[in-house]
Specification:
The chain is of the alpha+beta class. Helices cover 53% and strands 14% of the residues. It has helices spanning 3-45, 51-70, 74-82, 84-94, 96-107, 115-134, 150-154, 165-172, 211-222, 251-262, 271-281; strands at 139-143, 157-162, 182-186, 189-195, 226-230, 237-241, 244-249, 290-292. It has an eight-stranded mixed beta sheet, sandwiched between helices. A hairpin with a 6-residue loop joins strand 5 (226-230) and strand 6. It is elongated and about 75 Å long. The N and C termini lie far apart (92 Å). Residues 1-8, 108-112, 265-274 and 280-306 have low confidence and may be disordered.
Length: 306
């Protein structure tokens, strides 16, 4: 037996493997892309207002498809095919806030300031919250990130001044012409004041949460802004982020949260690859809930401030 005959089976095996890889990599890549896309979409809408609608919509659509194919209902199959374009339009209308938020996150790549500037901005927020909490002055502060708060600022008053604790105190001081509504902080500057934020439509929130808290949660559901809230009734500080709401936090807890969200490592990968890697590597977020950190009964300290 010569050397060529000995290597013939191995050569045939390698040829078969090479042919399989040449023909199978495209379907494998398609499955991988679809799996990542479906996972990302479901994780993105989980906990938003559109999550129950997604579940109901998919359940009804799958029920119609299964019934029509299992029972061979040709008319129903024809109608499903004929109205597929209308289904796409319905998805665009029903999930418009979620789709807009998703496209905004993709279109606005995160551009962060230096770590020193971010730490200074965080200390400005902490000092302002501490002062406002001591005298029980209500406040609603939105820290803009990658998604521009264009719709929110359209109803506000242009300020464009340096963000300082004294300026925030002045804006939210009672009887001030700009104390109603929210403040938008962009970078190290107060961009707008007296902004009207969208109210959340969630029905699971406690009745003691007033308009200020509901507006903060509503804006966090539609954007990636960090919302800091001070209760006028109790002086408690709270924050909302991506639909999650935590109530009654201390200054140290608020500082730790703002640091974890606003400060990024210096060696963070840049560009699209780093952005997608960061989004896919995020830990799975739980359902958004209203949490009282102090353990107090929220019903005993209602906050109905606007």
């Amino acid at each position: 037996m010569n050397m060529g005959d000995m290597l013939q089976p191995e050569g045939g095996f390698l040829t078969a493997v090479r042919a399989f890889l040449n023909t199978a990599w495209r379907p494998s890549l398609e499955v991988l892309i679809l799996a990542i896309g479906i996972y990302y979409v479901f994780r993105f809408i989980r906990g938003t207002r559109g999550a129950p609608v997604v579940t109901g919509f998919l359940f009804v659509l799958l029920a119609f498809v299964l019934v029509s194919f299992l029972l061979q209902l040709n008319v129903l199959k024809y109608l499903l095919g004929a109205f597929s374009a209308f289904f796409i339009l319905a998805v665009l209308v029903i999930f418009q806030p979620e789709l807009r938020r998703m496209l905004a996150e993709v279109g606005n790549l995160p551009l962060f300031a230096t770590a020193h500037e971010q730490r200074e901005n965080i200390e400005v927020i902490i000092q302002a919250v501490e002062r406002l909490s001591e005298v029980k002055i209500g406040a609603l502060i939105a820290i803009e990130q990658s998604i521009h708060l264009q719709e929110a600022v359209e109803s506000g008053i242009l300020v464009d001044c340096e963000a300082t604790p004294e300026m925030l105190e002045t804006i939210f001081f009672p009887n001030n012409a700009m104390h109603d509504g929210g403040v938008v902080i962009r970078g190290d500057r107060i961009a707008y004041a007296s902004c009207i934020f969208p109210l959340t439509q969630r029905q699971d929130l406690h009745r003691s949460l007033g308009t200020r808290h509901r507006a903060g949660i509503g804006l966090s559901e539609e954007t990636d802004a960090v919302i800091v809230i001070v209760s006028e009734e109790t002086g408690q500080a709270s924050y909302a982020y991506r639909g999650q709401f935590v109530r009654g936090v201390t200054a140290e807890e608020l500082r730790a949260f703002l640091t974890s969200v606003l400060l990024r490592p210096a060696d963070r990968p840049k560009g699209w690859i780093g952005f997608l890697r960061k989004r896919l590597a995020e830990p799975h977020k739980p359902e958004p809930v209203a949490v009282t950190k102090t353990g107090e009964n929220p019903a005993s300290k209602p906050d109905t401030a606007t």
